[in-house]
Design a protein that fits this description.
The chain is an alpha+beta fold. It contains five helices and 13 strands. It has one domain: Lipoprotein localisation LolA/LolB/LppX (outer membrane lipoprotein receptor (LolB), chain A, Clam), CATH 2.50.20. The chain starts with a helix and ends in a 15-residue tail after the last strand.
């Protein structure tokens, strides 16, 4: 367990490296880099350096038998931070995802300041093992560049057939991302890869993302997680950047959140305090 936690702490530092743009050296070395480069070009046709985003709109929220609706604001920074403010008729839900950093605590109680969740006034840290999911899951123009950095292992897995209810038709290009420890043969390397894995399914004609899949690990344990699937549609160019105006988040096969984007701000100023633990006000 100690060895795995040490590797996880090391991988938190690797996340900062993964946020770097895809380099020519990476493109030459990674089998999936050409597909990633096509997706990056499709997302930013205007060549605009994207450092932050703010999306606002309406939301439909489902949690078990509870169905609610309201408004929401989604913010993300190129530093690996994001914030979701969801205002429902039954109350507010605020989720803050700050950049992963050093762990707090020891053993299975280790946590990361890389993410916090505040619901109805309660606050909880994320376990160390649950601080690797894509912070900008709702905005691929930030999330995908973070995935395609020089510390990433990029795999082009060909085409994947989806059911008819999923966007993008039945055959999408499959790009897989995971972080690689400096020593891939070390104990716990498989754990690092599993915790950081994200699968992008791309439209074969436009190379825009149709689906993002990743796992959450609320207990911080690899084999005790659940799958999250984000579906994107209704793409529109705003300030030279492709933005999905319809976003759905599915958890373990059930639709949890439907977002209809109504306004978009590219590169708005965002205070760092918004992404700090306890800073969601």
């Amino acid at each position: 367990m100690r060895t795995v936690l040490n590797l996880l702490s090391l991988s938190l530092s690797l996340l900062a490296l993964a946020a770097s743009p895809l380099s020519a050296q990476t493109a030459a070395a990674a089998p999936g880099a050409p597909l990633a480069a096509s997706a990056l070009g499709a997302l930013d046709p205007g060549g605009v350096p994207v450092t932050s985003v703010r999306l606002s709109g309406t939301a439909d929220w489902t949690a078990g038998s509870t169905v609610d609706a309201g408004t929401l604001t989604l913010e993300a920074s190129g530093t690996g931070s994001s914030r979701v403010d969801l205002e429902l008729s039954t109350g507010s839900r605020i989720t803050v995802r700050a950049p992963a950093g050093a762990s707090a605590g020891t053993g299975q109680n280790a946590t990361s300041p890389g993410g916090t969740t505040e619901v109805a006034g309660t606050t909880s840290r994320l376990p160390l093992g649950d601080s690797f999911w894509p912070a900008a899951w709702f905005f691929p123009a930030l999330a995908l560049p973070a995935a395609a950095g020089p510390s990433a292992v990029l795999s082009d897995l060909g085409s994947q057939t989806l059911d008819e209810s999923a966007p993008g038709g039945t055959a999408l290009r499959h790009l897989r991302f995971a972080l690689s420890p400096p020593n891939p043969d070390a104990a716990g390397a498989t754990t690092v890869a599993a915790l950081t894995q994200a699968d992008w399914l791309l439209d074969p004609s436009t190379f825009l993302p149709a689906v993002l899949r990743f796992s959450r690990h609320p207990k911080g344990i690899v084999n005790r997680g659940y799958q999250v699937e984000v579906r994107y549609s209704d793409w529109r160019v705003v300030s030279g950047v492709e933005v999905p105006f319809h976003i759905e988040r599915w958890v373990t096969g059930s639709r949890e959140l439907v977002v209809t984007v109504q306004s978009v701000e590219i590169n708005p100023p965002l205070a760092s305090s918004e992404f700090q633990f306890g800073g969601a006000q």
